[in-house]
Amino acid sequence: MAAVRAVVYFGLLLSLKRVPLPVSASSTGEDKECRTGEIPEFPTFLQMGLNLQSLGEDDGGHSSAMLSKVRTGKAPCPSLFPDCVSLPQICENSSPNMFRLGRANAAGSANNPDNLVLDLTNVLANRAKVQVLVMALFKEGAYTDDQGLLAERATPLEDTSSTLLELRLSADGRSVDVYKPAMDLRTSDPQSVYALRAGVGNGLQASVPRLHCTSGTSGTSGTSGQERVIVDMSTLLELGFFVVDTSTLGFETTIIKAKDYPTNLDITVDYGPRVPLLRVGYTMVLLPEVPMAARENDDRLLYFDTQYRDKGSHRKQVRQKLSEAVDSHVSMIWRYNLRRLPDHTIRFYVDPSVPLRWRPYFKKGIEAWNEAFTLIERPAAVRAILPGDEDWPDDYDMSDVRFSAITWDVSEETLSMGIAKVDPRSGEILKCDVIMGDSWVKSYLDELEMEWVNFTNFLSKTPSVSVLMQQGLVEPGKTPLRRILELLQQGSADRKSRSFGFAAAYMQKRLPSNELQALLGSGLQEIVTHEVGHCLGLRHNFKGSLGVSQDCLRDFHCTALHGTTASVMDYVPVNLPRPGEALTHVWSPTIGEYDKLVIRYGYTHMQSPANDPGLEKVLEDVRRLAEGMQTCYDDDLYLGEDPSCLDYDLSADPLAYWEQQLDLYADVQRNLLEMSVAPRESYNLYGRAVHSILAGFLPEMGINAVYYLGGINNTYLHKYPDQSRRARQPMPADTQRRALAIILRILRPNSQGLLPPASNWPYLVNGNQLDGAIESVDLTDLVRRLRRLLLEEALRFERLLQVHKQENLLGPTEADAFPVSEFLSTLVYGVMSAGLDKITSDDERDLQRIFVQILSSKLPSDTEFIPAEVMTQLQYFRSFIHEMAEGALDRLPTTANGAEWSQCAAFNQTCTCTGLVRLRIENRSSSGLWSGTFKRCLPNDFMLNASDTDSPLSWCECLSLTKTDLDQREAQRLHVESLRHMLTSVVPGKV
Ligand SMILES: *[C@@H]1O[C@H](CO)[C@@H](O)[C@H](O)[C@H]1NC(C)=O
Ligand SMILES: CC(=O)N[C@H]1CO[C@H](CO)[C@@H](O)[C@@H]1O
Ligand SMILES: [Zn+2]
């Protein structure tokens, strides 16, 4: 049920975890917790005639065991109910709310859960049973106990596939029975109903005894107090509403907040006695009496879904095998039910916490989806309601299930955080909230609040690959690539923010500040559109960016129409104008073609009856059209086989995008000192910016390029008579060659202009002012790490196997694959291009050395799963470099003799040498360090006491230590020797 889980963390909400949240100002006034002075005293209840009695304690003992748990009273309410004043009227039927919460003075203190009661009179008035959805989540985190219980903010606690409860008045009318029907086994086959019920049971969880009011107060409906259906909430809370396993939470409960709304209620409870207390928020929502007609999920159109097995025999559909018509596996997409919504409109309420200046962008971001609904003749199906709008509801409260809200920050009181509330019977989305207050949004918006700050700090956001390496989460050559990709994707909030900051810093050079505000606003708009897309039921599609061409990206009119991606449900980087070119849409201004299609699939024909004969044809047309779009799921990215399934790539030609990015980074390096450090700011901002390019952007791009080597393009296709496309094929060989060329560019940051200019080196310090330490940025070290990472990744066996798999994908006559032999030869020639018998730079030698080291570390003993042809290729290139080295050594000595000890002076003559000088007498010798002055070649200076002083067999030799051309030759020879040495152990016959 990965799909169901996924929504919980959907979008960028992921990084919400572990972010300390400031107390929000988002709640409406009435939602404030009550202050001590306003609490009505308990006697108030009694004076109003409320005296609750339990009816059920002696009734079969259903619940007495449940009630016997130890409870500890807490200090009296500061916050039992948000509106303390109106609470005591539990026996007055003055509220039309379906579930009414109240407080009773049974025993103990105000916070005792015994005192919370639930009045079901209204909801059970016209029906024998009601179905409710119950959701629970941690309201505060993060916390892990020794049993590994992980409590992170907004982590859902319930088993998300079974959150439906049924409440019924028992036959004798003395209790309310709570059922939890099995939702993953259902049947639409009348002949299987009996067997299913017998097999899985009716799901009875508990009978909760009814309480009643002693006085016969009557409310508007005239129901007498005796007739009201009121139950004690303590059982439900202690048992986690039957959806949460409370044994892991603690047995003491303290109500923090409880509030009812027209069709739902929200309760926040602390579970103890552990420290810190675990704070859990529950939401109970009345489900519609008639479930929405479900719409079948399709793997070409990416929706969140609910799945179950439909037991029994069913009529076979055209698109089914016979076996699938029995005990069918059903997957229903999640979507709003337009038919049930007022004016058939999905309303998103922009919470008052959203700063005024951003609201217009929020509105645009929300209503962008109408581009899709227009195509199914509902041009205004999605509406943003802003505070102050004519139809802004007076009773707006984001905990109220009637309002899907977009908030700026997470309010302490809010229970509903980033979670779609979905009817498990039908996939109907009842409510969905977007929280825009998580870490990445804050990270730049905090800055914005401070009136057009310098954007320098954005550049210094932690670069993810290097952080992952520092934290030991990524070890080059050891951590699987798909794990790295997964980790990067998890940190995508950081990446988005970083690319945001990057854009801002870069654009700042060219934009006046009012345009800058518009730029940042349009960035928020894109994120809102993405998140609202999740709320409409849509999943990510990381191939979305492939749907917009390079030309379109540079054409303002084109992107205005098509967006910067075919799916705003992809993560796309900013689309910056190239130097000297006109402004672009930096962020996608609208939804893409794929998004429109998905909405058509989910939301078309909602007005018509379920047995609409035209519907299947319409849906089938959309499915066929979807095959023309490129799609992939989050899991395809984690699988790590299809490189076109990637977040943060851009355009139909992602490699061209990266090639341009490399040019851009070179341009950036030239200006980075100016861009990253404002007057009077600390130079360490410069170091951090340089670090984020060399340890963040470049390795990430390199990793993505490695992902292309051996890449296979997998496509969600279905079988049709006229199907001419392939479900799998290698990425075009030429594309893979370009990827390798990008890797080779990144391996030489120096010659590619990707390093800071030497004139800026004096300012290259890195550090954190808050930590009170700075250090000098070590460029050589950063370059070496970059090389090691990329070469380890490119040469690891998994990668070679992937290239091999890809190579063998096609039939023998189809040539467009990238063979292992070509991959290895291109890499070897690319890295070794400077050769071995010419003097090269230290930098080139270092690259060669890292490469040969990694190449020779791949020992045959590790390789039982490596196919012979891959192994022989590896061996071939090792021998090849070994031969290169041998040949070079044959030639090098003839030119390198100058670097050897050379005679400097005969005995007793003067000798000039900077470096080592040694005196040889017979077969003895001794050396000393000289420094260029004329010295006499005599034993005294060498601490020898030789008497046969004028032996013709005595002389002085010099080994120069200056970096002369001659020494470079010696260095080259030593370098080649060491390469040969590294390879000797792995080249057969060269031990
Ligand atoms: C992947 O394959 C599909 C279907 O054959 C094709 O339409 C698409 O262009 C291919 N993508 C790439 C990046 O080659
Ligand atoms: C370019 C710019 O706006 N620089 C400002 C950065 O912030 C410092 C202090 O916060 C200001 O002094 C600069 O003018
Ligand atoms: Zn998302």
From TrEMBL:
An example molecular function term from Gene Ontology annotations: metallopeptidase activity
InterPro entries attached to this UniProt entry = EcxA_zinc-bd, MetalloPept_cat_dom_sf, Zn_MMP-like_bac
- Per UniProt, residues of the EcxA zinc-binding domain are 515-833
Keyword Glycoprotein applies: no
Keywords attached to this Swiss-Prot or TrEMBL record, sorted alphabetically, are: Signal
Q: Which Gene3D superfamilies match?
A: Collagenase (Catalytic Domain)
Q: Where is the signal peptide?
A: 1-25
Q: Which domain of life does the UniProt lineage start with?
A: Eukaryota
PANTHER family in alphabetical order = PEPTIDASE M1A AND M12B (PTHR38478), ZINC DEPENDENT METALLOPROTEASE DOMAIN LIPOPROTEIN (PTHR38478:SF1)
- What name does this protein carry? EcxA zinc-binding domain-containing protein
- Organism, scientific name: Symbiodinium natans
Q: What is the lineage of its organism?
A: Eukaryota, Sar, Alveolata, Dinophyceae, Suessiales
